[in-house]
Amino acid sequence: MAEQDGPAAESASEVRHRTANTLQLLATLARMRGQRSTDAEARRQMVWMAEAIGALGALERQRAADGVDFGAYLNDMAPVWRRRRAGQEIEVRVEAGSLKVRDQAASTLALVTGELIANALTHGLRDDPPPVLRISLDRDGETDIVLTVSDNGPGLPGAALREGFGLWLARSLAAQVRGKLTMAAAPGGGVRAELRFPL
What we know:
The protein contains five helices and eight strands, in the order ααββαββαββαββ. The protein is 49% helix and 22% strand.
């Protein structure tokens, strides 16, 4: 579908802008509520909710009539992910050009990406060597898109045992976009998560 132009395009852009701002406000409120909680589990859940809502707000800024530029979204989120670990900035390397994905799939993909990154930050990275996250997005032929998230942590077999809620959710969401999520040892150490899904 071609980009809209004229008043219709301006109206759609305004709606996206307002939606993004509303989602960012909700993320801030969830984060503030979590900070005030005295219950550790409630605080953790509110932080998770704030991160998910914030990711959807950032995604909304990349939405257009012909889909969502998911490469631009990943590059926009890199500074957020660098600061995700308290007291330590992580090196985040994003390799993703402009690549449009289906509008209906974009929100789901953003949540899957967030879960994979959270899993790496929580379980996969250590202080030594200095933590590095690599995120890439590319086409594979004419039919598939491949998203990878890899870390330089201790790697398998420990990674194979950490099938907690985050990875369960990531696999469930991947299935919604007819995608396949696999986890394997990364070259040089660490874990490589790959999500392959149709255009």
